[in-house]
Write a structure and sequence with these properties.
- The protein is mainly α.
- It contains twelve helices and no strands.
- It is elongated.
- The termini are far apart.
- About 5% of the residues have low confidence.
Length: 258
């Protein structure tokens, strides 16, 4: 009797699935309603069940795109990117695959808008710009594969922003090394920025740091080469107006307010 009572109690306590028996259309409709009200966790639940129960139905493909967005809004960035990647792999020729690339870029873009908050870190080298680079790569692939996509028009200015941000990050790290007398590391980071992020706004300071670092290391040939690059590409640079206004060894006269 006790055993029967225990089994009966377990049955009474067992959770019931409200979605049991729902059609794919019902699950999808409920997920859309949940998203419209900002109930992202509920939307994720419905879309996951739709994918699991009806993986080959007519709602499955759209559900995979929608769940990426719902994951992102629910604060599940890694899941959002994984869902977009899964869609790209399964449906590379789908009419809406451009949106999957755009979603990948957008998730990381919004996550890393604070890249330049590196200024608040006691050690700039501890920060990671991986997400920003991945965002750029996703937008770049979108632009290359789907130049006429409506999402490419929005991705392009974001790409320019990301390039400038990444170059600025490298310059901040180079400046960090300069302040601590790590001149080789400073020169290498500045050189990386110049080589990798052509046309970025931060390159003027990157070349200036190279001149200062090479001069501090006594590497006069590299210093003079960087100086020529500086004068050719940034003839109106603010760094030329050093203390005393002299041109000879201007990099020694200018004392940056870092």
């Amino acid at each position: 009797m006790l055993a029967a009572l225990a089994l009966g109690g377990c049955g009474m306590l067992k959770d019931t699935d409200e979605t049991a028996g729902w059609s794919a259309q019902k699950l999808y409709g409920e997920s859309k309603d949940a998203m419209s009200t900002g109930a992202w966790d509920k939307a994720v639940k419905y879309l996951e069940k739709l994918e699991a129960r009806y993986p080959y139905g007519r709602f499955a493909q759209q559900a995979q795109l929608d769940v990426s967005y719902a994951y992102w809004k629910n604060g599940e960035r890694a899941s959002a990117i994984a869902a977009a990647d899964r869609f790209i792999k399964l449906y590379p020729n789908h009419a809406n695959v451009d949106y999957a690339y755009y979603r990948k870029g957008l998730v990381n873009f919004n996550e890393n808008r604070g890249l330049l908050s590196v200024l608040d870190s006691p050690d700039l080298t501890e920060r990671d710009s991986k997400g920003t680079r991945e965002s750029f790569e996703a937008f770049k692939e979108l632009a290359q594969r789907f130049p006429d996509s409506k999402y490419t028009a929005d991705a392009q200015p974001r790409m320019r922003y990301l390039v400038n941000s990444l170059a600025q990050y490298e310059v901040h790290v180079a400046r960090y090394y300069m302040k601590r007398g790590a001149f080789v590391a400073a020169a290498n980071r500045a050189q990386f920025a110049v080589r990798t992020y052509a046309q970025a706004q931060a390159l003027e300071e990157a070349v200036f740091i190279m001149v200062k670092a090479y001069d501090s290391l006594g590497m006069t040939d590299l210093r003079d080469a960087a100086d020529r690059v500086m004068r050719k590409n940034f003839p109106q640079s603010r760094y030329f107006t050093g203390k005393g206004g002299r041109e000879v060894s201007w990099w020694k006269l200018w004392d940056p307010d870092w």
